[in-house]
Amino acid sequence: MTGERYIEYAAVFVAVLVFTVLATHLLIPVLQRRHAGQRILEIGPAWHLSKAGTPTMGGLAFIFAIVGVGVLYGVWLLRTERAQELRLFWTVLVYALACGAIGVADDACKLLKKQNQGLTAPQKYLLQLLASAIFLLLARRFCGVSTVIRLPFGGAALDLGFFYYPLALLFLTGLVNALNLTDGLDGLLSVNVAVMGGFFLLLGLRDRLPISALSGVMLLGAALGFLLFNRHPAKVFMGDTGSLFFGGFVAALGIVTAHPLAVLIAGAVFVWETLSVILQVVYFKCTGGKRLFRMAPFHHHLEKCGLREGSIVALSLAVSVFLAGLAYFGG
Q1: What is the DSSP string of 173-209?
Q2: Is the pTM here over 0.90, yes or no?
Q3: Where are the domains of the chain?
Q4: pLDDT (tens digit, 9 = 90+) per residue, 75-99?
């Protein structure tokens, strides 16, 4: 890539970072005035009850930042006749926005019902499945995304043919919900998304994939900007609004870059959080009420074992960096 591209990506990173910080700073008092406070599940760790009332739906801040910078950058891409990049970026962003919209509906239901449960699980999954199917159709029709994926540790290509589509739907909806489950501690999802942003940036620079590099700097800027307010003790939560948006963004990038397996390796922390919930439920049913973990998802198990939030986030960050490095060098 040319030096001009590096300057572009640096400018996009700074713009998203600054806009996210400003938008979050302005959004927090608005959420407080509207009593958009998080409600805490009584079955969760007792010490989480002190977080009740912390403003939620903070994900709106970095969504506005990414969309705003995306529009400005899109105008630049049109001027430089890079229409294919623009199509790919907006296809990814529209899917992320669709997932974020589902999160907005879920958060709004929680606030209206004054409880921690919003949309039902089937309602959320059906909406995600519909959004994912439309995304795959658009990616195939307008962006040239094929049924070929790249295999890690060698880079060989594998054409999945018809089986690509059900597997892609499972990948998209599974990863979106995995990021949602990971958002359970102050700063936990933010630091992991920042690592994924760095991974996509390096992947894009190495393999000359502009969509990956551009989206990587946006994810990195948004996650770090929001982390300033979301680190422990959090002044604001991103809510399902933000976690589902981030999930859609990461999952869509795995599809359009043809590197879904590398994304699963780099994002194995998200995968493990989901597996811990599944294993907990299966073990509970098979043993007549016994628990495999003290609490699921796994970050709550670590809390129950005595680890502080900051220690868990630091541990997760270290593991994510290692896994992202493994996925990058293995690709």
Answers
A1: HHHHHHHHHHTTSTTHHHHHHHHHHHHHHHHHHHHT-
A2: yes
A3: 3-144+160-259
A4: 888 777 777 788 899 999 999 999 9
